[in-house]
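Example record used in the benchmark description.
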Amino acid sequence: QIITGGYNVYPAEVERVLTEHPDVAQACVYGIGDQRWGETVCAALVPRPGSGLTTDGVDAHCAERLAGYKRPRVVRFVEALPLGSTNKVLRDEVRRMHLDDVVVEARPQ
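Model output (structure tokens):
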């Protein structure tokens, strides 16, 4: 669970909405620390091959389906998500990759 501005956000709910987008193959939603909000909702997405997936397109898709506090503030596109032995996405590893890398694009808060 991600707590942002006192609200609870369940990653599975946001991931379900993200994977409903026709250009998203996989999604992983996670929180990173934020001085103002406690945590910021972030998403790492694997685009479908040949798609023209953009952060604006993802944001528009989420705006129609999620409350504002549940929408990812940071969207990153990755080639693959790290999987464990049971084929579950390793959320902590994705969060660690995020903190180690430069943020690609962020939606203003």
